[in-house]
Design a protein that fits this description.
By secondary structure, this protein is mainly α. The protein contains 5 helices and no strands.
């Protein structure tokens, strides 16, 4: 029976956790659920592989699948400084209207 140290237990699953977090952040699971599941499966293979060559092969395939998922990700509507200023201006105007009523 093989005993695992605390460090080994913590490290196991790190790739899977990171991949799942990135898939959630990208929001690609509804767009391509099969590819997202393949990425999770490959990440588990990387985490569980004992042989360095098996880990390298799974990691290479995972890298390619994640690149595909990133290309499929919907464009996030992140605001820039101008959007932030416009939002602050709208809040000030709304507050001024509420104070005037």
């Amino acid at each position: 029976m093989t005993s695992l140290t605390v460090t080994e237990v913590v490290i196991m699953g790190a790739v899977t956790d990171a991949v799942n977090a990135e898939i959630n952040q990208l929001g690609v699971e509804p767009v391509s659920p099969g590819l997202a599941e393949l990425a999770t499966s490959l990440a588990q293979s990387v985490d569980e592989a004992d042989a360095p060559t098996a880990r390298a092969v799974a990691a290479r395939e995972l890298r390619a699948v994640m690149a595909d998922l990133r290309r499929l990700a919907p464009i996030a509507a992140k605001g820039d400084a101008v959007d932030d200023i416009a939002e602050q201006r709208a809040k000030r105007r709304a507050a001024a209207r509420a104070a005037g009523d």
